[in-house]
Write a structure and sequence with these properties.
Radius of gyration: 20 Å
Oligomer: single chain
CATH topology of the largest domain: Peroxisomal Thiolase, Chain A, domain 1
Helix content: 25-40%
Number of helices: 13
CATH superfamily of the largest domain: Thiolase/Chalcone synthase
CATH class of the largest domain: Alpha Beta
Strand order of the largest sheet: 1-7-6-4-5
Strand content: 15-25%
Distance between the termini: 17 Å
Number of domains: 3
């Protein structure tokens, strides 16, 4: 049998600070009923403003995953780190994690695929293990959204959805026939890129001033194209989302990529022990469950407690499911995500 990669250890970390829907009413015109009806979210975790970062949360999740894999940080030979909220614009969080954990001078790859980031990262790591290049790959999804959200009535459609947290797994090779990642499936279509995006700061200025040439502007004006006080004053430094448009595409692509993974392995939805969807919106997950005719015990959701933690949501949910005994040796598990880009992806594995 050819080499496969298996999840040898898994860990998660969420900040201690719990913010309920009622807590958010102090900052914006909203209500528990309004948020619950639209998203299914009841509460989320927010990291300490200055004491916690995307990387520090990743460290905590990684420590647990590494210990459960029965190895040490010195045994890790590659890192794949998925996030949309890095500590710095550059360098990426991968090298910061390597430094913080005192690892050897291993390679570190940063993945910027937002909500699909963890599945993309897992697929990348899977190829490294299958090829025999690496034996202990640390795959991380971590997000600190709270520092960059608009906590006002103006920004409530986005801000009520997101939370902070981190999840991590260690991938190792296996030759067991009833274990490991069976296949991964990655897709993108950039036609709707601006429907869900954070535009500023960025180097896209010529996209917004396409009728003028750079020579038409002086140095000061060119500098302000990247970041300016006007962007702050006009609330142009926060994420933008056209929720209904995102929902419309998500409910099409989400179930399709799940079915794709099953059909690629000659399996059916009835064979599935557990679907762990990206925790984007409970209403989307419920729509997908109904469309695929899955039982409640075949789907795991925890967005009610943590909100949408984008790249961290799947490893956090998978870790909780495993800790609760919902995932056992030999179970068929599907991980699936859809997000900004648009990107969508799935991974099918035997635990």
């Amino acid at each position: 049998m050819s080499l496969r990669s298996k999840i040898a250890g898994i860990g998660m970390y969420v900040p201690k600070n719990v913010f309920t829907n009622n807590d958010l009413t102090k900052y914006m015109d909203t209500s528990d009923e309004w948020i619950t009806e639209r998203t299914g979210i009841k509460e989320r975790r927010f990291a300490d403003r200055s004491g916690e970062t995307t990387t520090t949360m990743a460290v905590e999740a990684s420590k647990i995953a590494i210990e459960r894999a029965g190895i040490t940080a010195q045994d890790i030979d590659f890192i794949v780190f998925a996030t949309l909220s890095p500590d710095y614009y550059f360098p990426g969080c991968g090298v910061l994690l390597q430094r913080a954990m005192g690892m050897k001078d291993v390679g570190a790859l940063d993945v910027r695929n937002q909500c699909s980031g963890f599945v993309y990262a897992l697929s990348t790591a899977d190829q490294f293990v299958r090829s025999g290049m690496y034996k202990n790959v640390l795959v991380v999804g971590s997000e600190k959204h709270s520092f960059g959200l608009d906590f006002s009535t103006r920004g409530r459609n986005v801000s009520v959805i997101f939370g902070d947290g981190a999840g991590a797994v260690v991938l190792q090779p296996t030759e067991e026939e009833d274990q490991g990642i069976l296949s991964t499936h990655l897709h993108s279509n950039g036609n709707g890129a601006e429907i869900l995006a954070m535009y500023n700061p960025g180097t896209h200025a010529n996209h917004w001033i396409k009728d003028q040439k750079l020579a038409d502007f002086d140095d000061a004006e060119i500098g302000e194209m990247f970041f300016s006080h006007a962007m702050i004053d006009n609330a142009q430094v926060f994420p933008f989302m056209d929720g209904p448009s995102v929902f419309k595409v998500a409910v099409e692509k989400f179930p399709a990529v799940i079915v794709e993974s099953l059909e690629a392995n000659n399996l059916k939805t009835t064979d599935l022990n557990l679907l762990v969807p990206h925790q984007a919106n409970l209403r989307i997950a419920q729509f997908v469950q109904k469309k695929l005719q899955l039982r409640d015990d075949q789907v795991f959701n925890n967005i009610q407690k943590y909100g949408n933690t984008t790249a961290a949501s799947i490893p956090i949910a998978l870790c909780e499911a495993w800790e609760q005994g919902r995932v056992n040796r030999g179970d068929l598990v599907c991980l699936a995500a859809f997000g900004s880009g648009f990107t969508w992806a799935s991974a099918l594995l035997r635990w």
